[in-house]
Specification:
Layout: H1 9-19, H2 30-47, H3 56-69, H4 75-88, H5 94-118, H6 124-145, H7 150-174, H8 181-199, H9 202-223, H10 231-249, H11 259-278, H12 282-289, H13 301-322, H14 327-340, H15 347-371, H16 374-400, H17 402-437
Amino acid sequence: MVALDRRNPLIFYVYAARAACAAPHRCNPGSQTVLSAAKVSYQETRMTSRPAIRSRGSSVARAIDRWVTAGLVDEALAERLRSHEAAAHAGHSRLTVFLFGFGGLAVGAGILLFVASQWPLLGPAARFALLVALVLGLHLGATAASRSSAALATTLHAVGTAALGAGIFLAGQIFNLAENWPEGLMLWALGAALGLWLLRDWPHAVWTAMLVPLWLLAEWGRYRDFAMPQPTEIVAVGVGFAMLATAYFSAASGSGGPMWRRALSWLGVIILAGVVFALPGLRYQGELLWEGESMQPDFGVPQVLLWILAVGLPAGVAFAARRREAWPVLVAGALAYVVTWLDASETGPRLVAHLLYAGASIGLVAWGLSDRHALRINIGIIGFASTVLWFYFGNLFDMLGRALGLIVVGVLLLAGGWLLERTRRALVRRIRGEEGVS
């Protein structure tokens, strides 16, 4: 059966007419009506500058509803069209996705345990052959599985790329090569980038997004001979990861888009969750490393190169993904730089950090509203609630006493949670309603 393609009017018309037939070789007169309705729907789609809903199945369902309302098709024919489209666009259930994901992790862990148990018993040639067989076997198995299950093939390809990284570093151990972590990460990143170019799937986009920054950071560390980091270098790394997380977070917009963009958004959330806890007082912690050292830190060419990398890479990623809408990355970098100078152990700087994080959370919600992105709204609400709890436990809990403090935090969680959830639902409904009428 030819898939419905709204970009090709001929395929669209023929497919709509065939869907109206009771049998593939016999069409009833209603097919002409559907043909006319399909032409109207195609012209509407052609004149629309940007589709309101990116999901193709949802667009077709709304088109069928319009045909019924206009009297172009009857309810029985519309139900057959809905059933056919529901079957054509049915994806994998959440249980299936969970099973494939957990199964991939289990396979990877099992491979590591098997290789570890057999490693001492094998010679260098056998060890290298085993590594090559594991990587090729996983990717060839994924190629074979792609005919029956795309999700299974994606899982096996992702595990195969993970095995590639382990194989690269173990191969260096087999042949007693000089330890060179940057080159190992470079080869692993190249393998992930090659997989992304060949497969165009989201796991390899995530692998590439993780490995390329780590490789560049490792190369800079080798340039510095892996010396003890200076305070400004620690701050640069923190600011760079905050900007990179924001760049990944901004990859997706609206409620749809390619899966790799949504995967990068979730990767940005994960990185951001770790960065926000590490940023406060990062400059002060870096200075503690140099306490008592005879040589004082300086600011020279290595530090300039690190700052160019920390700011340039996230800005380039954000510009490639969002073009003119990449400006939030620069705001995140400025905010992160200020927070690194705030010592969370002191009351005044800690209050300023609370205010900055609360403002950033509200800004994230506003960004989600303007971009019609529900994930940013949800993360903004969670960030605001976490900031309020951080402020309460860091400044008020000890003043109230244990019993009263627990009562207040319970009331805060119940009342605040209800209010924030109500606000979150209203905001998400708002952007989804705007998408439905835009």
